[in-house]
Amino acid sequence: MKLDKSEILKALETITVAGEGKNMVESGAVKNVITFGDEVIVDLVLSTPALHIRKRAEVDVMKAIHEKVYEKAKITVNVKVEAPETQKTQPQKNVIKGKPIPGITNIIAVASGKGGVGKSTVTSNLAVTLAKMGFKVGLLDADIYGPSAPIMFDVEKERPLSVKEGGKSKMKPIENYGVKILSIGFFTQPNQAVVWRGPMAAKALNQMIFDAAWGELDFMLIDLPPGTGDIHLSIMQSLPITGAVVVSTPQNVALADARKGVAMFQQDSINVPVLGIVENMAYFTPEELPNNKYYIFGKEGAKYLSEDINVPFLGEIPLVQSIREAGDVGRPAALQTATLVEQAFEEITKNVVQEVVHRNEHLPPTEAIKITTMAGCAAVKNKK
Ligand SMILES: Nc1ncnc2c1ncn2[C@@H]1O[C@H](COP(=O)(O)OP(=O)(O)OP(=O)(O)O)[C@@H](O)[C@H]1O
Ligand SMILES: [Mg+2]
C-alpha cells in the first residue's frame, strides 16, 4: 500500500483546529506530510499550548487518515507549539545572499572522502526513493571526472534540450524514474577523457545549476567527486547547501577519509551541517540467504565513527550483487519493491528527511561560503 500525500492533505482539510477558524491545511498548521508505503508522518505547528487541543488535533488527524484514506495507515503525528508572532509564514528556503535559486528548497551534497565507496549509488537510490515518497527531486552529478548519473539512470544517450525561461535559454534536465538529472556526462563523449582546469569545471557546474530549468524541487541532491578538493569548494561557494550526507564503507582507510570529509563541511569558514553518515557495503549478504551476514570490510566502523564525531548515523546498506547490477543497467536497485535493498534505502531516506526537517527548524539557512583568497583555499585544504 502506497499512501498518497495529496489524499492525506485532502483528509486533513476536513479538520479544523479549535480556535483557528480555517481548516488545518489552510491555516498553515500542517507543516509537513511525509508518506512512505503505509506510513505517514504529519508535522503540525499549533499556536495554542493547551494540552487538550493538541491531543484533539492528534486524534483528529489519525481519525481522518484512517477513515478517509487507509484504515491501516501507520501514523506519527508530531506537534510543536509556536506562539503566533514567532510562527514563520514561509517555510525555510535556501536563500543565498545575491544568488537565490528560485524554487529549490533543500540542497543535499553527498560526499565521501575516499573514492569508490558508493556515493553515486547512494545518491541515485536516495533520489528515486525520495521521488517514490512524493518529493520533487533533482540530481546534479558534479563528478566532472567520472560522471555516473547518465549510466545509473539509463539516460546515457540523452542530450538536454534548450528551453526558454524568462526570456533566457536554459537547459532542461533529463528526467527518469521521477528524478530530474543534469550531468557533465551529457555533454562529453563516453570515451573521451575529460581534462578540466579548475575554473572551467566550476563554470560548467555553475551553468548546470543556474542556467538550467530545474523548476520546483523539494530536494536537489549533488553527487560530489571523491575527496575534498577544488570542486567541493567551488560548489560550496556557489550554493547554499542545506546539509551533507557522508558515505563510508566500514574499513579504516575509508573511515579516515570520511572523517576528513566531515571535517571539511564543519570547518568554520564552510559550516555546512552534516546530516549524517551512511555505511555502505556494511556487510555482504547473498540474496538467497539474507540472514547470513559477512562483515568483510569490518563491522559497524561508520557507526562508531558517527558516534565518535557526534553526527547522526543514517543507516547501513549491505553489499549485494543486485545493487551493482542495477547501477550498471541503469535502474537504481531501490526501485525494486519488497526487497532488502528497497527497505535499507527507505530507512536511510526517511532518516535523511527527518534530519533535514530538524536542521531547518533549528539552524538558519546556510550561506554560500566566500573563499576569495588563495589563503582561504589553503586553509580549507590543509584540513585534509
Ligand atoms: N552496496 C553495494 N553493493 C554492491 N555494489 C555496490 C554497492 N555500493 C556500490 N556498489 C558498486 O560499487 C561500485 C562503486 O560505486 P559508486 O560508483 O557508487 O562509488 P562512488 O563513491 O560514487 O565512486 P567514485 O568515487 O568513483 O565517484 C559501483 O560499481 C557500484 O555499483
Ligand atoms: Mg561517483
From TrEMBL:
Database matches in Pfam families: FeS_assembly_P, ParA
Residue intervals of the MIP18 family-like domain: 5-69
Molecular function GO terms recorded: 4 iron, 4 sulfur cluster binding; ATP binding; ATP hydrolysis activity; ATP-dependent FeS chaperone activity; metal ion binding
Annotated residues for binding of ATP: G113, K114, G115, G116, V117, G118, K119, S120
GO biological process: iron-sulfur cluster assembly
Record keywords, A-Z: ATP-binding, Hydrolase, Iron, Iron-sulfur, Metal-binding, Nucleotide-binding
Oligomer and partners: Homodimer.
Family according to the record: In the C-terminal section; belongs to the Mrp/NBP35 ATP-binding proteins family. In the N-terminal section; belongs to the MIP18 family.
Record-linked PANTHER family: IRON-SULFUR PROTEIN NUBPL
Stated role: Binds and transfers iron-sulfur (Fe-S) clusters to target apoproteins. Can hydrolyze ATP.
Name this polypeptide is given: Iron-sulfur cluster carrier protein
Organism of derivation: Aquimarina algicola
